[in-house]
Amino acid sequence: VLSASFIYIAALLRTSLVKMIHFVLLISRQGKVRLTKWYSPYSQKERSKVIRELSGVILARGPKLCNFVEWRGYKVVYKRYASLYFCMCVDQEDNELEVLEMIHHYVEILDRYFGSVCELDLIFNFHKAYYILDELLLAGELQESSKKTVARLIAAQDSLVETAKEQANSISNMIAQATK
Amino acid sequence: MNPFSSGTRLRDMIRAVRACKTAAEERAVIRKECAAIRAAVSENDQDYRHRNLAKLMFIHMLGYPTHFGQMECLKLIAAAGFPEKRIGYLGLMLLLDERQEVLMLVTNSLKQDLNHSNQYIVGLALCALGNICSAEMARDLAPEVERLLQFRDPNIRKKAALCSIRIIKKVPDLAENFINAAASLLKEKHHGALITGVQLCTDLCRVSEEALEYFRKKCTESMVKLLKEVVNSPYMPEYDIAGIADPFLHIRLLRFLRVLGQGDADASDLMNDILAQVATKSESNKNAGNAILYECVETIMSIEDNSGLRVLAINILGRFLSNRDNNIRYVALNMLMKAITVEGQAVQRHRATILECVKDNDASIRKRALELVYLLVNETNVMPLVKELIEFLEVSDQDFKGDLTAKICSIVEKFSPEKIWYIDQMLKVLSEAGNFVKDEVWHALIVVISNASDLHGYTVRSLYRVFQTSSEQESLVRVAVWCIGEYGEMLVNNVGMLDIEDPITVTGSDAVDIIEIAIKRHSSDLTTRAMCLIALLKLSGRFPSCSQRIREIIVQNKGSFLLELQQRSIEFSSIIEQHQNIRSTLVERMPVLDEATYSGKRAGSLSATGPTSNAASLNLPNGVAKPSAAPLVDLLDLSSDDVPAPSSSGGDFLQDLLGVDLSPAASLSGTGQAPKSGTDVLLDLLSIGSPPAQSSTSTADILSPSQDNTSVSSFQRISSPPSLSAQGSSPAQAAPMMDLLDGFSSSSPVAAEDNGLTYPSIVAFESSSLRINFDFSKAPGNPQTTLIQAKFSNLSPNVYTDFLFQAAVPKFLQLHLDPASGNTLPASVNGSIMQSLRVTNNQHGKKPLVMRIRIAYKVNGKDTLEEGQINNFPPDL
């Protein structure tokens, strides 16, 4: 109990100093973690505790309730898209409605990138979901309000990777040819 | 090449994991993959490093440990190509956090990448820095980031701006370096760079007064102008959300204006028009529009007063409050909380709607609404509001009852116009949700009842009635038991009947029935039962005709496993049986409890708990979270502020009950005269209150009334009837008291242990060469913890050097060893080493202590080891 109160006090202190998104979670209906992004320092142990606690709270909530949960002096804004819950933890003072809009913004970009995104896309291409998130949020703040710009930046970086791969392949082909 | 690493692709591994039907299968797959990755790591495999790290990230998300992959991230980041760096930085952000030392190693790579010719690599480095940098890294890399704020591509400028936010939050001293570059971002046309620039300026103002002054002077007008442009901008497909051009930019501008306007009337004036325009023109049928309205309201409420605007803002909130969308109602409640300090009257107008929200079926909304109602209460509306809340308490969810009860109690205590109303409301709460009422609340109620002498009869009769229907509510039972014990005769004789009351017919035996039900309730805990026994003793004085039956009830607890109850049972039954002549004096009514002292003490403890924290169980000096009997001590002892929390023993309880100053009791723990301690209890019973340290010298001495001036003065302080102390200490009463002692000789060791007075020392370990003695004491107020003083003696003719004592305990115990007084033990018991141990027994009262020990030392340079187990601890430690 005592340590819980310390966490609470620490949370209060943290709240008064900064104002930002502290972390982003994607959790499936079954409670499986699909993406976690931490903008505030949480130890690995704290991270799994946070995930366990929050998925318990959020998955238990009924469909027609509001999209906000108060938790440890923070607010968690969540929204369900098909089988996935998108959650962002923000400070008490933050604009919850805007955070909902950010979640939607992210989902729309994912949707465009994958072409009607589903949970399986995010499982097998989880790193892509991270890359997109990194073009959208940075340091717990919104980075870009244009979906088109994010898509363009991701495409440019993907093609850099493709080019590098092709080069590597052609080099290994050349070596293979030469040593034949 | 490693035979494993060429095996599975990332995609195959994910498939394999997903194909697992049980957790054990999944663990097996992961174990195999991790083994392969470890092997690749140790072989410094380069071809598959990229893929292995991706696998590790997936494994990490499943919750398995992946620390062995941390260095792989650094290696990938240090590689030359973009693909390696991209995955390397991603792994760095996922697998590490800013508190890990490894992170320091990456500073140099980051510095190089921030200066890289490929802008996407610069972007990766900025992203990583912004997400995980520590204060040291912030200092090291701030100049690079500052320079990148002027990079040619706006996509790098925007990343640098957010990265700067992280830097100034970590190291606020650096803020001033960023002001100029941040100001130039405000002129950006690129939306990404603009919103991050506005955000950076806002955060600069938060950490630096200088920045705030600068931006207020230079930018207020241009920001107002910018917001105007954005609000009136034509359709922009790239940024459009629900017909609004870039709501994110709107919101950031409104937030920046808020910071600029707060506390500055001139700046606030400049923005009035545009705020009015946003407040009236924004679309309110889509979330994006409402998000802007919400931000606008907050800005209006925060900047300097403009009553016209504030009315507008409150109206928006009123509209929000009646919205069908739960999200909108939630934010309305949230904002009304902030508005209440500036526009209290306007918020009061929405009271009825807010009260409805307390009854909502959404827990988040209920919680917000309840907090708000709490702030809305004042002297004029307290009665109807509390009535509504209590009515709702009857039908609310179990989950919510705790919060609701706490708030109602707090409101009642704070705003109660009169005592009868206070008592009535508290009884209603106790009968509806007594199990949720905190100890300090019902303690306070008892103090209030005790002080309301004209309502004693009314209260005890009300409690009697309520008990009939709500006997499952623990705290109600306690208050009822206490009052019936104190004011039982008023219950029976209808004393002090108020006009509003219906007369009831209750006999003494009915009153005893109530206590009997309470003590036999299955769920009654130690505190309740102990209170029942006291009440029974008191009733035996009030209704002599029932005393035989009372004694029978009391005697049933003679065999209780709980020492507290056993002791009370034995003592009380012998008082009833053998000492009718002093009984009525013993069971006098409690002196009136001092409200001021109690509330002062409580205020002290509450402020330490914090205003909204439900964790009232912080270990406060006032003992909010002490074991069950301790609240009684708090309740009844009003004069022991400086005394360490007393142990929850019968002796203390009685001292408290009869209003004896507790300070002598504290000295009990040190003195420890076991055979005499039975006397203490009896002395206490008789309210002599002489320091027990003296009592152990001679019983006769204590009884001479001339001796204890201190205790008499303490009596006067709590205004107990003078007759009590006079009779209590008169020599005439000495003889029966001696008689009383006779009956107890067998139980006195029990009393001694329970008092925490003393425990016999033991020889914990003895071999031909070594002896260990243990002395025990208890920390006051903490019966679970035993302090052990260990003394080591060398029985051999040789000196022991490098002496080391180790101990191990089972899980239900916690052991703390202080350093020993030395590590050399002189020969032939010619000196000793002392060491303190502290053992906390989580199963106190259920399991005895047990300890396994190992002693290592050198005799003539030769290592010697002795081991043993200690099973002979005194019971009840």
From TrEMBL, chain A:
Report the residue ranges that make up the AP complex mu/sigma subunit domain in this protein. 20-159
| GO biological process terms, semicolon-separated | cytosolic transport; intracellular protein transport
> Which Pfam families is this protein grouped with?
Clat_adaptor_s (PF01217)
Q: Name one GO molecular function term.
A: clathrin adaptor activity
Spell out the SUPFAM superfamilies in the cross-references: SNARE-like (SSF64356)
Main localization of the protein? membrane
Which superkingdom, per the lineage?
Eukaryota
Q: Which UniProt keywords apply?
A: Cytoplasmic vesicle, Golgi apparatus, Membrane, Protein transport, Transmembrane, Transmembrane helix, Transport
| Membrane-related topology note | Peripheral membrane protein
Instruction: Kindly list the GO CC terms recorded for this protein.
Output: AP-1 adaptor complex; cytosol
Where does the chain cross the membrane?
Answer: 6-27
Cellular localisation: Cytoplasmic vesicle, Clathrin-coated vesicle membrane; Golgi apparatus
Q: InterPro entries, per this entry?
A: AP1_sigma, AP_complex_ssu, AP_mu_sigma_su, Clathrin_sm-chain_CS, Longin-like_dom_sf
Role, per record: Subunit of clathrin-associated adaptor protein complex 1 that plays a role in protein sorting at the trans-Golgi network and early endosomes (TGN/EE). The AP complexes mediate the recruitment of clathrin to membranes and the recognition of sorting signals within the cytosolic tails of transmembrane cargo molecules.
Q: Which family does it belong to?
A: Belongs to the adaptor complexes small subunit family.
What is its quaternary makeup? Adaptor protein complex 1 (AP-1) is a heterotetramer composed of two large adaptins (gamma-type subunit and beta-type subunit), a medium adaptin (mu-type subunit) and a small adaptin (sigma-type subunit).
What name appears for this protein in its UniProt entry?
AP complex subunit sigma
From TrEMBL, chain B:
Membrane topology recorded in Swiss-Prot or TrEMBL = Peripheral membrane protein
Keyword check for Transcription regulation: no
What highest taxon heads this organism's lineage? Eukaryota
Q: Where would I find the GAE domain in this sequence?
A: 757-874
Stretches of Low complexity bias are at 719-732
Q: Does the keyword Membrane apply?
A: yes
Q: Gene Ontology terms, cellular component aspect?
A: AP-1 adaptor complex
What are the UniProt keywords, alphabetically? Cytoplasmic vesicle, Golgi apparatus, Membrane, Protein transport, Transport
Q: Kindly list the places in or outside the cell where this protein is found, as annotated in its UniProt entry.
A: Cytoplasmic vesicle, Clathrin-coated vesicle membrane; Golgi apparatus
Described function: Subunit of clathrin-associated adaptor protein complex 1 that plays a role in protein sorting at the trans-Golgi network and early endosomes (TGN/EE). The AP complexes mediate both the recruitment of clathrin to membranes and the recognition of sorting signals within the cytosolic tails of transmembrane cargo molecules.
Q: Which family does it belong to?
A: Belongs to the adaptor complexes large subunit family.
Under what name is this protein listed?
Answer: AP-1 complex subunit gamma
- Could you tell me which species this protein originates from? Dillenia turbinata
Taxonomy, top ranks, is:
Eukaryota, Viridiplantae, Streptophyta, Embryophyta, Tracheophyta
